[in-house]
Design goal:
The structure holds 2 protein chains of 2 kinds. By secondary structure, chain A is an all-alpha fold. In chain A, 69% of the residues lie in helices and 0% in strands. Chain A folds into 2 domains: 115 residues, no CATH class; 120 residues, Leucine-rich Repeat Variant (Alpha Horseshoe), CATH 1.25.10.10. In chain A, helix 13 packs antiparallel against helix 14. The radius of gyration of chain B is 23 Å and the shape is globular. Classes of the chains: A mainly alpha, B alpha/beta.
């Protein structure tokens, strides 16, 4: 045990100087500790605290990248504040999401949702996609607000996130969406995804309402065909 | 032959052909003899118009297979490496005896073309799901190299996109059907009886973290596009070169781009094992981790809803008694009570797995390696990987695509993609 602790101390020191090209084997004791603390909450919390301390210190991008990967596996609510500060940083936002997206606590979702108000462009695309990947139904209102973004990538990411969440509220927001033209195909795809979720839940009328919205002549042929097949499925399942 | 989208090319050709015959066009030479077809080549209106995305290494092999077919009109290539893009374009133009092949750096430009019916995708694994889904949304059929997925979450989204838009999407392991006939026969003809267990041996390491040093990025490669949804890392030729190496000498070695040999060769071997034992339409219910014990090395057993067990690297000392066949890398053990034979599915059309795909693009039948079957194999491999990484047993619920009550394993279902790329 003492030997393991010494090795972990040494690995945490190596992490502070870690950078691309450094010997990654020096970090193996951290990898081992991630596995060995699986059923030891106190030891895991202690490991998490050490990693957070590294994340908050002046270390390389690669070292922070490594910590975020580890926190994706073991991070808890304790990690959220440190990770949240990185969401607005161009170079670190993705790896902060890499961890936050996988941390189950509501505080992780809260941090992502709060960041929507402070990021724009590609960073906002990333945050929206992470909320969608989490299936965070509590974020529908904030995500829906981005459907009208002038940046087509942001509007498309918002639509995709709602298509991943697939709740009645998400479907309602998508039905009302009037995004700029470049985002419309993802809006329609996400409407179809919502309809499929309703079909799977046996909510035929809700599914049919979405499909009926999409069979109109003004929509692309591929969408109309998908909606027509959906209506057919609704009819078959009703019988 | 772009099902579900406007077939302007075909309609134009048909109209133009008729028009040329009736002399409406003053310049009938716009319809070439190649477009009209001959004894060995169908007319252009009956050919599948294709493009290739990710055209180096294995993608080049796929390109060769499709390019060699008379019923394929190959018109476009896409690769983020100029040398591969140019080489692939030259190959197409040489074959077509013209200079018409278009070359793209960005796959979205290729997918935006209305005249393309189908694409083959041979990029590193971290791009597969996004490209297959985007291809479906663009109304293209897709042949995707194995391993079809990098994470568990990707598979259902790929299947949903294929089904939503009625696209033909085929996985890309030819070995599933071609390498294990010595096993498939006795299993499907009933000689071996009910299959009780399978052992898959002989393939190697999990993918690992890459920490290669930065090198100057060559002008030849669009590094941001090569990385795409993967975490940003500096260019190093060792990160992106190579093809099959999994010992630190190719992108297949690294966790951001690949599941390592376990998913690379695993796609072939577990694809073959699940096909031979007739569980390829199922997903496992658990990956049981067996710790190393004395002389016995650690190994993992996948359990299936029908009671079948598929072991990965089961120690030879634990080999069961009773009827079995040893195919080298795969051993299958049955109860020996003869059963009624079942016909084993095979490729449709001629020309192996590539011909099967083209046949299905034309007929709209499900291909031999329909994406759902490829995904089922990948789920088995991702479960194996997660059990090895956590060094414990994990249980899987195929209906919800989750690890019930297992938050730690649940974190490994997916990973955040680098902006501006996302999956839905």
């Amino acid at each position: 045990m003492a030997d393991d602790a010494a090795k972990l101390d040494s690995a945490c020191e190596a992490l502070k100087a870690y950078n691309w090209g450094a010997d990654k084997n020096a970090l193996q004791p951290i990898e081992d500790a991630i596995v060995s603390t699986s059923s030891d909450a106190a030891a895991r919390a202690a490991l998490e605290a050490r990693l957070i301390a590294v994340l908050e210190s002046d270390v390389s991008r690669d070292a922070k990248d490594y910590v975020c990967r580890a926190l994706a596996v073991i991070g808890s609510t304790a990690s959220v504040p440190s990770l949240a500060t990185l969401l607005t940083k161009e170079e670190l936002s993705h790896m902060a999401r890499f961890a936050l997206e996988r941390i189950p606590s509501v505080q992780a979702a809260d941090a992502l949702r709060a960041a929507l108000a402070t990021v724009s462009g590609d960073l906002k695309v990333g945050v929206l996609s992470s909320l969608g990947n989490r299936g965070d139904a509590a974020s529908v209102t904030q995500i829906a607000a981005a459907l009208g973004d002038a940046d087509s990538k942001v509007a498309a990411a918002a639509a995709a996130a709602l298509g991943s969440i697939r709740t009645p509220e998400a479907a309602k927001a998508l039905a009302a969406a009037k995004p700029i033209a470049a985002a419309m195909s993802i809006v329609m795809d996400s409407r179809l995804a919502c309809a499929e979720a309703f079909l799977a839940q046996g909510k035929m009328e809700d599914a049919r309402a979405i499909y009926m919205l999409l069979v109109g002549e003004s929509n692309p042929k591929l969408i109309r065909l998908a909606a027509t097949r959906g209506i057919q499925t609704c009819l078959e399942q009703k019988r | 032959m772009n099902h579900g989208t406007s077939s302007t090319r075909r309609e134009f050709l048909k109209t133009a052909t008729g028009a040329a015959v009736t002399g409406v066009f003053a310049a009938p030479y716009i319809i070439t003899s190649k477009a009209l077809g001959d004894d060995t080549t169908p007319p252009a209106s009956d050919r599948i118009v294709m493009g290739g995305i990710g055209i180096g290494n294995q993608g080049g092999g796929d390109q060769g297979a499709f390019l060699g077919r008379g019923d394929v009109q190959y018109v476009a290539v896409c690769d983020v490496r100029k040398k591969w893009r140019d080489g692939a374009k030259d190959r197409v133009n040489g074959r077509n005896k013209n200079s018409d092949c278009a070359a793209y750096n960005d796959f979205r430009e290729l997918l935006a073309r209305d005249d393309i019916d189908a694409v083959h995708i041979g990029t590193p694994d971290h791009w597969h799901a996004i490209m297959v889904i985007e291809a479906c949304r663009a109304g293209k059929d897709a042949y995707c190299q194995k391993p079809e997925t990098l994470t568990l979450r990707e598979g259902p989204l790929m299947i949903a996109a294929a089904r939503r838009y009625s696209r033909i999407v085929s996985g890309g392991s030819q070995r599933v059907r071609e390498d294990f006939n010595n096993l498939v026969g006795p299993c499907w003809n009933g000689e071996l009886g009910a299959i009780k267990s399978v052992n898959v041996r002989d393939f190697g390491p999990l993918s690992q973290l890459c920490n290669l040093p930065a090198q100057e990025t060559p002008a030849d490669i669009d590094w941001e596009m090569w990385l795409g949804p993967a975490p940003w890392q500096p260019y190093n030729s060792g990160r992106c070169d190579g093809n099959f190496g999994t010992g630190g000498n190719s992108w297949r070695s690294y966790v951001d781009y690949s599941g390592g040999s376990l998913t690379d060769w695993g796609a072939h071997l577990f694809g073959g094992a699940t096909f031979a034992s007739d569980v390829c339409e199922l997903q496992p219910t658990a990956a049981v981790f067996h710790k190393a014990d004395g002389q016995l090395g650690a190994y993992v057993t996948l359990t299936y809803p029908n009671g079948l067990e598929i072991h990965h690297r089961r120690p030879d000392q634990l080999k069961p008694e009773g009827p079995q066949i040893d195919g080298g890398k795969i051993q299958i053990h049955g109860d020996g009570v003869k059963r009624d034979p079942k016909p084993a599915p095979g490729y449709k059309g001629g020309g192996g797995i590539h011909g099967d795909f083209i046949h299905c693009v034309k007929t709209r039948e499900k291909p031999f390696r329909d994406i759902e079957l490829g995904v089922n194999t990948m789920v088995a491999l991702h479960l194996l990987t997660i059990a090895y990484r956590l060094q414990r047993t994990v249980k899987w619920d195929a209906a919800t695509q989750q690890f019930p009550g297992d938050e730690e394993a649940g974190r490994m279902v997916d990973r955040a993609r680098r902006q501006p790329w996302f999956l839905s």
